[in-house]
Design goal:
The chain is an alpha+beta fold. Helix content is 12%, strand content 22%. Strands 1, 2, 5, 8 and 9 form a 5-stranded mixed beta sheet that branches.
């Protein structure tokens, strides 16, 4: 589909964020850590203490209320989504006084299409009632959540991507909601999409360079997967400025690409693919 969602809220570039936070280095400073610990954390996460860009949730978000780490299982029939396994660790941080500290107790949703470009629980995808590749975790005392899933496939008009939503409380005591997307490099996409079961769908019609959403700020939301036995693993940190009420507003507004209005392009076609299997 074309332009299924558009960026919302304030986009903050890396350079601008570093300037606002008065940070001169490229490292992540985590409140409460020693210099050595901070250096270790930086090496492990390879991120900067910057506010990340928001993007709308798109038309395929469903609040299923499924608290689980492994989102591959369809709770309707117990099948497991086809595809290459990915373990995704997210570090949820809050930005204050020029440093990042862990944000415990945040609700983190992750959802994405399957290897054939299909979202669960969508009438347009003939998948109502199915729950594959959806779920949420609550960040622990270190601000961390882990999802076990598969690499997403693709559908018309979009590059490969994940959707995520973080819900917490802002510094003003009101609900704070951050919604965005995660991406891979074009080279990584091309490599895994050439393998089964992804290859059966053919060559994608959209790359990062031609994706409307990625072109806005996608380079700030790139994952760097690492090969492990049985699949891939990736870790990514997201810093939130909980005093930014504009960024923390409800992200479920209408309009093209949002759940309050129709998608601006055709939805993924119902899957003719084989049923998901373990």
């Amino acid at each position: 589909m074309d332009n299924d969602d558009e960026p919302v809220g304030r986009l903050l570039s890396r350079r601008h964020a570093l300037a606002l936070l008065a940070l001169t280095g490229a490292g992540l400073t985590v409140a409460g850590t020693t210099g050595a610990q901070a250096a270790t954390t930086t090496a492990a996460t390879s991120v900067d203490c910057v506010a990340k860009p928001e993007m709308t949730e798109g038309p395929y978000y469903v609040d299923e209320g499924l608290e689980r780490s492994d989102i591959r299982v369809d709770t309707l029939d117990g099948t497991v989504s086809d595809g290459t396994k990915l373990t995704l660790d997210l570090d949820i941080l809050q930005i204050a006084a020029g440093a990042c500290s862990a944000l415990p107790g945040a609700i983190v949703d992750l959802w994405h299409c399957d290897a054939y470009g299909i979202y669960s629980d969508q009438a347009a995808n003939d998948s109502v009632g199915h729950t594959f590749l959806r779920g949420y975790q609550v960040s622990d005392a270190c601000g961390r959540v882990r999802f076990v899933t598969v690499l997403p496939g693709w559908y018309q008009g979009r590059t490969v991507h994940f959707h995520l939503k973080i819900r917490t409380i802002g510094t003003d005591g009101n609900p704070y909601e951050f919604t965005s997307q995660l991406f891979f490099t074009d080279a990584f996409n091309a490599a895994f999409l050439a393998t089964e079961p992804y290859a059966a769908k053919g060559t994608p019609d959209t790359t990062n360079a031609t994706d409307f959403i990625y072109r806005e700020a996608g380079e700030q939301m790139l994952l760097s997967p690492r090969r492990v036995r049985g699949g891939w693993t990736a870790r990514f940190a997201i810093g939130l400025d909980l005093s930014d009420t504009e960024a923390g507003d409800d992200d479920s507004g209408g309009g093209p690409g949002g759940p309050g209005g129709p998608p601006s392009g055709p939805p993924p076609s119902p899957s003719p693919s084989p049923s998901a299997s373990a």
